[in-house]
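TA notes, week 10

Several of you asked for a full example with nothing omitted. So below is the full record: structure tokens for the whole chain, then the designed sequence directly under it. When grading your own attempts, check the secondary structure regions first.
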């Protein structure tokens, strides 16, 4: 697994009996994202798919939305005092004519692995205008199709099997085929890696797809889905109130508590093709 995992010796206690044994940890390291040689932000992430992460971050911030806007991307040599390469600094080159990120996006402190919004001045700063509308997407799925996604996501998490400490994000088509999966200590990083892969493969806007995440559905994950043109976000845990507000405002279908044949559909319930819905407050519980 290389730098993705780190071995560590631990004291293990089972029913009061101590033993020393090796353990495998998910790696977490800082990564600086530069655009045209200019530092933009630092995020804590699990190494791997770093180029996807950098590109996905720029999609989420409205800097990129098509593959031809990306001229190149590389690791920066000379990142250390002795001129070495830590593989923790990535420089993105934009195609000619693509505007550089607004100065307001620059962060004076790093983004932690648990929060994709640290350093933002206000909520207005993250309500980025998407280059396309997800509200018009004609996606429709059945409850059975949605119910199959968490197990398919979990089955593809190779690093989680070794560490138990990573979030996952997966992009699925309407047939339930996994188009891309990425893992990371940060849920927002995992989504950025998926979005970055999609842009580099020319798949944006990701119409007719479902983005499945292993944790909760937060505001920033809804924002990232909308910016990538994904019409449906499904999570195994709860959404936040602000996530529901943004999903409703954007026309995105937001599904939470997707476990087995149960789920809550919070917005754009018309995309769920079922014969019975039971309304609970502002949510629809299916199954």
């Amino acid at each position: 697994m290389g730098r993705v995992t780190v071995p560590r010796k631990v004291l293990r206690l089972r029913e009061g009996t101590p033993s020393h044994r090796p353990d495998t940890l998910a790696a977490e390291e800082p990564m600086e994202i530069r655009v045209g040689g200019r530092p933009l932000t630092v995020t804590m992430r699990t190494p791997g798919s770093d180029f996807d992460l950098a590109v996905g971050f720029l999609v989420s911030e409205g800097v990129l939305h098509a593959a031809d806007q990306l001229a190149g991307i590389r690791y920066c040599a000379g990142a250390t005092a002795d001129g070495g390469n830590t593989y923790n600094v990535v420089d993105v080159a934009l195609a000619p004519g693509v505007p550089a990120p607004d100065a307001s996006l620059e962060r004076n402190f790093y983004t932690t692995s648990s929060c994709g919004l640290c350093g933002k001045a206000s909520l207005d700063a993250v309500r980025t205008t998407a280059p396309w509308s997800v509200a018009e997407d004609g996606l429709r799925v059945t409850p059975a199709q949605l119910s199959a996604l968490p197990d398919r996501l979990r089955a593809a998490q190779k690093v989680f099997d070794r560490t138990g400490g990573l979030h996952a994000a997966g992009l699925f088509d309407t047939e339930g085929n996994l188009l891309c999966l990425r893992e990371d200590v940060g849920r927002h990083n995992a989504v950025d890696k998926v979005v970055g892969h999609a842009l580099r493969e020319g798949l944006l806007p990701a119409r007719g797809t479902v983005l499945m995440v292993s944790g909760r559905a937060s505001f920033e994950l809804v924002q990232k889905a909308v910016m990538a043109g994904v019409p449906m976000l499904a999570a195994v845990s709860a959404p936040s109130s602000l996530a529901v507000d943004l999903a409703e405002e954007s026309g995105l279908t937001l599904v939470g508590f997707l476990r087995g044949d149960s789920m809550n559909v919070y917005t754009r319930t018309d995309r769920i093709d079922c014969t019975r819905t039971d309304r609970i407050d502002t949510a629809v519980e299916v199954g």
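Residues 29-124 form a domain with the Ubiquitin-like (UB roll) fold (CATH 3.10.20.10). Use that as a sanity check on your answer.
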